[in-house]
């Protein structure tokens, strides 16, 4: 359980600003995708006249796939909300003055940071009960996507916990001392002095983890959640399951995620430069 | 080894019902071992490939033309901002359909196996992060150090070989460690293209014998141990290479 990197800097993989990135890079990439699509389109038109071509099948099932993508987004929002609440609590627990709390929260943090997403997903999907009993005594079946959402929030929780801990530790000691000099209690110091200063420097890594979380949501399709990838695979089946579908369908999915994540990545980078803490 | 632990785990099953059948059933034990070996091989291959891509990419970004730099930036952005799982599916199913088939005498096998595709896809995925890491390391070498080496009459290549590279490697080692660890964890995704690595194998075991919690525990222990070992190894390297007075 010895995760070695503990400073904030390493809790976020994408800390290295890319020099000279601008919107036109994204435009070029999208153009590239479009060209590949066009090539596939021409190719498949030659290939057969009786069946629907790959692109026609794709456009036929487009609403279905986009509906799945909507579920991806919903899962990412909910999971991020859960992860933020739990992660901040866990991060504060990591700097607690009680040794037991510190050790326990450190263990939980590192357990979820070090296990692969897929393993955590399997664990939650198989070990969480299928149905929950409400207070009234009636039983409800927990939908798979809710369980998957919870599973995705766990690794992000661990990483947010590290971000918070790193941010708290990066606040100069003088802040603590002067708060003590003003007769603030530890709790008051935390709430009114330390945490407000942590927010700004935690936002870029937090957004970065949101991007990573969204990129992980397709894994839910392995366990039968009907999100974008699962729906695309179902659409391919429905269209006859021909092998020439595979390339355009998966390429389309890549484009879909790219179109959503790339602006977020650019924005994160901008904030990172803006909030850069100079020591 | 197997003979040594088998009686204990068999006894454990009889007495407590905890079914670690991979440790007392010969067949499952062999499955488990092959899964572990394939997982480790996959990690090793993907990490190696990602390092090669990272070094070449960072070098090309430093000396290359505008077009080459743009192409590398596009590669980095494309692979960092799309889901690794769909990348794997895209490589294996999308591109795999175009690779030639090899006649194995009666049946055909693709030239590039699922394992090789997983290694290639994960290597390229991890490489996209490594290019950035190495480039930032090269850029972080202080200017005055390079000026000093110039004043000592070192040639451009000598400066690169003896000053820039050793310093840059030390600078980027911490972030390299965290990226390689995350890449090692991502290899569990090879499950989606049915590479028989640890996750896939244990999944089969628990489907056969319905001992999900026990196998899940093994899976957690396996990955946490591998990650801890990899982290400890790289951390050891970091301490070994640390120059007194340089950096923190």
Automatic annotation (TrEMBL), chain A:
<dbReference type="InterPro" id="IPR035906">
    <property type="entry name" value="MetI-like_sf"/>
</dbReference>
<dbReference type="Pfam" id="PF00528">
    <property type="entry name" value="BPD_transp_1"/>
</dbReference>
<feature type="domain" description="ABC transmembrane type-1">
    <location>
        <begin position="69"/>
        <end position="262"/>
    </location>
</feature>
<keyword id="KW-1003">Cell membrane</keyword>
<keyword id="KW-1133">Transmembrane helix</keyword>
<dbReference type="InterPro" id="IPR010065">
    <property type="entry name" value="AA_ABC_transptr_permease_3TM"/>
</dbReference>
<protein>
    <submittedName>
        <fullName>ABC transporter permease subunit</fullName>
    </submittedName>
</protein>
<dbReference type="GO" id="GO:0022857">
    <property type="term" value="F:transmembrane transporter activity"/>
</dbReference>
<dbReference type="InterPro" id="IPR043429">
    <property type="entry name" value="ArtM/GltK/GlnP/TcyL/YhdX-like"/>
</dbReference>
<feature type="transmembrane region" description="Helical">
    <location>
        <begin position="73"/>
        <end position="95"/>
    </location>
</feature>
<dbReference type="GO" id="GO:0006865">
    <property type="term" value="P:amino acid transport"/>
</dbReference>
<keyword id="KW-0472">Membrane</keyword>
<keyword id="KW-0029">Amino-acid transport</keyword>
<comment type="similarity">
    <text>Belongs to the binding-protein-dependent transport system permease family. HisMQ subfamily.</text>
</comment>
<keyword id="KW-0812">Transmembrane</keyword>
<feature type="transmembrane region" description="Helical">
    <location>
        <begin position="249"/>
        <end position="268"/>
    </location>
</feature>
<feature type="transmembrane region" description="Helical">
    <location>
        <begin position="115"/>
        <end position="137"/>
    </location>
</feature>
<dbReference type="GO" id="GO:0043190">
    <property type="term" value="C:ATP-binding cassette (ABC) transporter complex"/>
</dbReference>
<feature type="transmembrane region" description="Helical">
    <location>
        <begin position="209"/>
        <end position="229"/>
    </location>
</feature>
<keyword id="KW-0813">Transport</keyword>
<feature type="transmembrane region" description="Helical">
    <location>
        <begin position="21"/>
        <end position="43"/>
    </location>
</feature>
<feature type="transmembrane region" description="Helical">
    <location>
        <begin position="49"/>
        <end position="66"/>
    </location>
</feature>
TrEMBL record, chain B:
<dbReference type="Pfam" id="PF00528">
    <property type="entry name" value="BPD_transp_1"/>
</dbReference>
<dbReference type="InterPro" id="IPR010065">
    <property type="entry name" value="AA_ABC_transptr_permease_3TM"/>
</dbReference>
<dbReference type="InterPro" id="IPR035906">
    <property type="entry name" value="MetI-like_sf"/>
</dbReference>
<feature type="transmembrane region" description="Helical">
    <location>
        <begin position="215"/>
        <end position="237"/>
    </location>
</feature>
<keyword id="KW-0472">Membrane</keyword>
<dbReference type="InterPro" id="IPR000515">
    <property type="entry name" value="MetI-like"/>
</dbReference>
<feature type="transmembrane region" description="Helical">
    <location>
        <begin position="81"/>
        <end position="99"/>
    </location>
</feature>
<keyword id="KW-1133">Transmembrane helix</keyword>
<feature type="domain" description="ABC transmembrane type-1">
    <location>
        <begin position="36"/>
        <end position="228"/>
    </location>
</feature>
<dbReference type="GO" id="GO:0006865">
    <property type="term" value="P:amino acid transport"/>
</dbReference>
<keyword id="KW-0812">Transmembrane</keyword>
<comment type="similarity">
    <text>Belongs to the binding-protein-dependent transport system permease family. HisMQ subfamily.</text>
</comment>
<dbReference type="InterPro" id="IPR043429">
    <property type="entry name" value="ArtM/GltK/GlnP/TcyL/YhdX-like"/>
</dbReference>
<comment type="function">
    <text>Part of the binding-protein-dependent transport system for glutamine; probably responsible for the translocation of the substrate across the membrane.</text>
</comment>
<feature type="transmembrane region" description="Helical">
    <location>
        <begin position="111"/>
        <end position="131"/>
    </location>
</feature>
<keyword id="KW-1003">Cell membrane</keyword>
<keyword id="KW-0813">Transport</keyword>
<dbReference type="GO" id="GO:0043190">
    <property type="term" value="C:ATP-binding cassette (ABC) transporter complex"/>
</dbReference>
<dbReference type="GO" id="GO:0022857">
    <property type="term" value="F:transmembrane transporter activity"/>
</dbReference>
<protein>
    <submittedName>
        <fullName>ABC transporter permease subunit</fullName>
    </submittedName>
</protein>
<keyword id="KW-0029">Amino-acid transport</keyword>
<feature type="transmembrane region" description="Helical">
    <location>
        <begin position="32"/>
        <end position="60"/>
    </location>
</feature>
């Amino acid at each position: 359980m010895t995760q070695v990197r503990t400073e904030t800097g390493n809790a976020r993989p994408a800390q290295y600003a890319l020099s000279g990135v601008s919107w036109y890079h994204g435009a070029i990439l999208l153009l590239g995708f479009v060209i590949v699509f066009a090539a596939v389109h021409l190719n498949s038109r030659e290939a057969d006249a009786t069946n629907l071509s790959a692109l026609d099948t794709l456009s036929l099932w487009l609403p279905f796939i986009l509906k799945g993508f909507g579920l991806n987004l919903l899962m990412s929002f909910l999971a991020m909300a859960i992860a933020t609440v739990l992660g901040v609590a866990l991060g504060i627990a990591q700097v607690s003055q009680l040794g037991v709390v510190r050790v326990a929260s450190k263990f939980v943090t590192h357990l979820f940071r070090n296990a692969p997403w897929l393993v955590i997903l399997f664990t939650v999907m198989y070990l969480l009960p299928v149905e929950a009993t409400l207070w009234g005594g009636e039983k409800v079946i927990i939908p798979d996507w809710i369980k998957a959402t919870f599973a995705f929030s766990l690794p992000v929780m661990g990483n947010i916990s590290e971000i918070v801990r790193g941010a708290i530790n990066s606040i100069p000691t003088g802040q603590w001392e002067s708060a003590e000099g003003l007769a603030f209690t530890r709790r008051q110091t935390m709430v009114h002095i330390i945490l407000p200063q942590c927010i700004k420097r935690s936002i870029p890594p937090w957004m970065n983890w949101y991007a990573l979380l969204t990129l992980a949501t397709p894994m839910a399709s392995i366990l039968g959640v009907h999100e974008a990838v699962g729906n695309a695979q179902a659409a391919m089946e429905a269209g006859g399951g021909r092998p020439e579908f595979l390339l355009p369908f998966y390429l389309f999915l890549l484009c879909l995620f790219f179109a959503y994540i790339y602006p977020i990545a650019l924005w994160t980078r901008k904030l990172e430069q803006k909030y850069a803490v100079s020591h | 080894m197997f003979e040594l632990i088998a009686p204990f785990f068999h006894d454990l099953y009889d007495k407590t019902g905890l079914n670690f059948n991979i440790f007392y059933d010969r067949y499952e034990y062999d499955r488990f071992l092959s899964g572990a070996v394939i997982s480790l091989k996959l990690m090793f291959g993907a990490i190696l490939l990602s390092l090669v891509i990272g070094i070449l990419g960072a070098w090309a970004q430093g000396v290359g033309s505008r077009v080459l730099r743009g192409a590398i930036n596009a590669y980095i952005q494309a692979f960092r901002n799309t889901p690794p799982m769909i990348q794997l599916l895209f490589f294996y199913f999308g591109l795999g359909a175009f690779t030639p088939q090899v006649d194995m005498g009666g049946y055909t096998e693709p030239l590039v196996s699922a394992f090789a595709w997983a290694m290639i896809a994960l290597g390229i995925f991890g490489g996209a992060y490594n290019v950035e890491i190495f480039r930032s390391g090269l850029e972080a070498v202080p200017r005055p150090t390079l000026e000093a080496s110039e004043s000592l009459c070192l040639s451009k290549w000598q400066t690169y070989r003896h000053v820039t590279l050793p310093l840059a490697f030390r600078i980027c080692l911490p972030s390299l460690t965290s990226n390689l660890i995350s890449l090692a964890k991502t290899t569990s995704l090879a499950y989606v293209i049915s590479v028989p690595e640890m996750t896939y194998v244990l999944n089969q075991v628990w489907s056969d014998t319905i001992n999900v919690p026990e196998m899940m525990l093994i899976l957690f222990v396996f990955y946490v141990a591998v990650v801890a070992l990899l982290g400890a190894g790289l951390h050891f390297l970091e301490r070994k290479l640390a120059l007194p007075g340089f950096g923190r």
